[in-house]
C-alpha cells in the first residue's frame, strides 16, 4: 500500500478530485495548509501599508491506495494540478505497512 500526499493550489482541488475519481480512487482526505517553497510568498498592500505574506494557502490531499493503483493516481494528480507555473505543488509517496478499518476490523488492502 502507498500513501500519497499532494500539495496543490487551492483552485485546482475540484479538478484533482474529479481526476482521481475517474482513476478509480475511492476516498481521500483534504486539509487546508499554508507554506512556501520557491514561491517565497509575496507582498500585499492593505490600507496603504505594505506587508509580506510569507505562507501561501495550499491544499493537501492525502490518500492511501494499493500499490497497483498508485501510478494511475499520481498521473491523475499531475495532469489535473499542473499549470506550468511556479507553485504548482509537490507529491510525496510513502509505504504504508498496515491499514485497519475500525468498524469491521478488516486489515491491509481490505481496509481500503
From TrEMBL:
<comment type="subunit">
    <text>Homotrimer.</text>
</comment>
<dbReference type="GO" id="GO:0005524">
    <property type="term" value="F:ATP binding"/>
</dbReference>
<dbReference type="InterPro" id="IPR017918">
    <property type="entry name" value="N-reg_PII_CS"/>
</dbReference>
<keyword id="KW-0535">Nitrogen fixation</keyword>
<keyword id="KW-0597">Phosphoprotein</keyword>
<dbReference type="InterPro" id="IPR015867">
    <property type="entry name" value="N-reg_PII/ATP_PRibTrfase_C"/>
</dbReference>
<keyword id="KW-0547">Nucleotide-binding</keyword>
<keyword id="KW-0805">Transcription regulation</keyword>
<comment type="function">
    <text>P-II indirectly controls the transcription of the glutamine synthetase gene (glnA). P-II prevents NR-II-catalyzed conversion of NR-I to NR-I-phosphate, the transcriptional activator of glnA. When P-II is uridylylated to P-II-UMP, these events are reversed. When the ratio of Gln to 2-ketoglutarate decreases, P-II is uridylylated to P-II-UMP, which causes the deadenylation of glutamine synthetase, so activating the enzyme.</text>
</comment>
<feature type="modified residue" description="O-UMP-tyrosine">
    <location>
        <position position="51"/>
    </location>
</feature>
<dbReference type="InterPro" id="IPR002332">
    <property type="entry name" value="N-reg_PII_urydylation_site"/>
</dbReference>
<comment type="similarity">
    <text>Belongs to the P(II) protein family.</text>
</comment>
<protein>
    <recommendedName>
        <fullName>Nitrogen regulatory protein P-II</fullName>
    </recommendedName>
</protein>
<dbReference type="GO" id="GO:0005829">
    <property type="term" value="C:cytosol"/>
</dbReference>
<dbReference type="GO" id="GO:0030234">
    <property type="term" value="F:enzyme regulator activity"/>
</dbReference>
<keyword id="KW-0804">Transcription</keyword>
<dbReference type="Pfam" id="PF00543">
    <property type="entry name" value="P-II"/>
</dbReference>
<dbReference type="GO" id="GO:0006808">
    <property type="term" value="P:regulation of nitrogen utilization"/>
</dbReference>
<dbReference type="InterPro" id="IPR002187">
    <property type="entry name" value="N-reg_PII"/>
</dbReference>
<dbReference type="InterPro" id="IPR011322">
    <property type="entry name" value="N-reg_PII-like_a/b"/>
</dbReference>
